[in-house]
Amino acid sequence: MNSSKKVSIREVGPRDGLQNESTWIDTEQKIEWINHLSRTGLPYIEVSSFVHPKWIPALADAEEVLARIDRVDGVTYAALVPNEKGLERALRAGVDEVAIFMSATETHNRKNINKSIADTLPVLKNVTRIAKQEGKSVRGYLSTVFGCPYEGTTEQTKLLQTVEALMTMGIDELSLGDTIGVATPNLVEAVVREVTKLVPTEKMALHLHDTKGMAIANIACGLRTGVRKFDSSVGGLGGCPYAPGAAGNVATEDLLYLLHGLGYETDVSLNEIMKAAAYIQEKLDKPLPSHNLQSFLAKEGSV
Amino acid sequence: MNSSKKVSIREVGPRDGLQNESTWIDTEQKIEWINHLSRTGLPYIEVSSFVHPKWIPALADAEEVLARIDRVDGVTYAALVPNEKGLERALRAGVDEVAIFMSATETHNRKNINKSIADTLPVLKNVTRIAKQEGKSVRGYLSTVFGCPYEGTTEQTKLLQTVEALMTMGIDELSLGDTIGVATPNLVEAVVREVTKLVPTEKMALHLHDTKGMAIANIACGLRTGVRKFDSSVGGLGGCPYAPGAAGNVATEDLLYLLHGLGYETDVSLNEIMKAAAYIQEKLDKPLPSHNLQSFLAKEGSV
User: Fold this and answer.
1) To the nearest whole angstrom, how far is the Cα of A1 from the nearest Cα of chain B?
2) Does residue B303 register a pLDDT over 50?
3) What are phi and psi for residue B149, nearest 5 degrees?
4) Residues pairing with B233 in the sheet
5) Are the C-beta atoms of residues B182 and B211 closer than 8 Å to each other?
6) Which of B27, B66, B99, B118 is most buried as measured by Cβ atoms within 10 A of its Cβ?
7) Contact B291/A262, CB-based, under 8 Å?
């Protein structure tokens, strides 16, 4: 059992958040915002994606963003990479870490990557090999770990096979995604316990969407099960673009409130994160799902 | 330790929800809505308040609502009562259960009730005595149990003295309120364990506001600590009227999703609750904080 009180947050707002927002943020504002995030104490920022701009036009400026942000010592600047071509772009842009991705369920993998799981694994293996040769660390995202919008329940044997395949490639961290936010704490505990047999908790992260309001309870459960790395996005960015009130990633502010309340250390300033959340809320011109941001703004009028 | 899988929900939307909304719902719509709630499987609905209409004008129609709703067998229809005068009105209107209220912190009690805690207790004792004589059960709300907007931390010795005083009056159920939604699970666990020394869990409920997004995690903790009664409001009604995105009571839908996911039984239909939430959202003409409602509407377009 992991008794450490140190928790590490992976901020994914600039990538997983903005790629799902219907309003696009212009490059200057992204840079200003990421520079602010770099000074909040966050150890890790996923800055953009090198998926082809045809698929994620909101992040077509990945090269420019990475070239122009002020990098702060101690912060890892990562980006999403789908294949060797994306990796070449990411390496030229000077990412610190490469994030590869696939799904735990066959149908979601095909819909998202246009390949079977069997055909995806060699691509990711090759990306991992080259990235490691270039001295970059590699993070693996596994989506639909706790449920799938197409298949419903995620098949556990297949999930564990895929986890093993990713770990065998030599990835440095595995992020287990509740892509559609359907898990409740009992499922999180069961899955984390199984995955822990293949992945040490130091290499495991939870990536939980707050679609059904379960993310914070699931994180509290993850902490009890020994997980100490969590993905989140400032403001709770990344909700469904067609649903005004629907939640996205768990908000970094809400995660911090939980962690600090439970006595965990993060080195991240909740107050500075609130300011960064208020900034991006203003640019997106809509209330974001973050509970702490909204209650803070209600009380203070402004941050 | 309570190993029962049966959980009882106290729906407080028509009272604690609507009293805090800036838009008032007219009497016909309230009745239609409460009639719908009565057919969802909910065992308990707090229908209105007999606090003087000067203080809660949105619920000035308490008598008419209680007179005209269709009462369903097995559903307890309760109302908030501040004093003997309010009790007379509530008894005439035929409530099944009387809910009295006070705060665990002196300053909040004075601001909310305009009396010291010492001066409040005899009033509530008298209300409880008469209500019991009239054959009504009595529920006690204790606010600011986990934190106070004026005093910050809630003083534990004083809290436990007040709990004891309320139980000695002979109330049938004590609802522990996180009025400003500041608790994290460690605090909930610590307080519930202390209060359990004075109140059996069968007589204890948690009333958690989702202001900082902690309510569901705190309920999961309450369940582990043996609590099996929870207050909630359909749609997550009851946010601050001045803050568009700020959360109110934990949403009944989100509570149900957690409970059913964890294998608890409630006899409440999540689908019917969703319809009741969509109804009141439409009448209030703004997105409510409920995660499950928003994700359902995003997916289905309508309920």
Assistant:
1) 18
2) no
3) -65, -20
4) B251
5) yes
6) B99
7) no
Contact B233, B45 (CB under 8 A): no
Residue reference for tokens 């995202």: A141
**β-strand partners of B148:** B152
Q: What angle do CA B296, B300, B303 make, to 5 degrees?
A: 70
By DSSP bridging, strand A137-143 and strand A97-103 are parallel
The tens digit of pLDDT for each residue in A222-253 reads: 999 999 999 999 999 986 655 555 679 999 99
Place of tokens 């308040």: B49
**ipTM strictly over 0.90?**
yes
Contacts of A86 by beta carbon, 8 Å cutoff, 6+ apart: A50, A51, A52, A80, A127
Q: Hey, are the CB atoms on A245 and B288 less than 8 Å from each other? A: yes
pLDDT tens, position by position, A264-289: 999 999 999 999 999 999 999 988 99
Which residues of chain A make contact with B242, given a CB cutoff of 8 A? 298
Beta bridge partners of A6: A265
- Give which of A274, A291, A296 to mutate to test B binding, by max B Cβ within 10 Å: A291
Domains and CATH numbers, chain B: 8-300 (3.20.20.70)
- Nearest alpha carbon to residue B36 among B230, B235, B174: B235
How far apart (Å, rounded) are the C-alpha atoms in residues B84 and B87? 5
CB pairs under 8 A between A and B: 127
Q: Which two tokens stand for residue B111?
A: 């601001």
- Report CA Rg, chain A: 18
Q: Give the whole-angstrom CA distance, residue A113 versus residue A130.
A: 20
A55 token code pair: 């698929």
Cα–Cα distance measured from residue B1 to residue A191, given in angstroms and rounded to the nearest whole number: 26
Q: Is the CB of residue B223 less than 8 Å away from at least one CB of chain A?
A: no
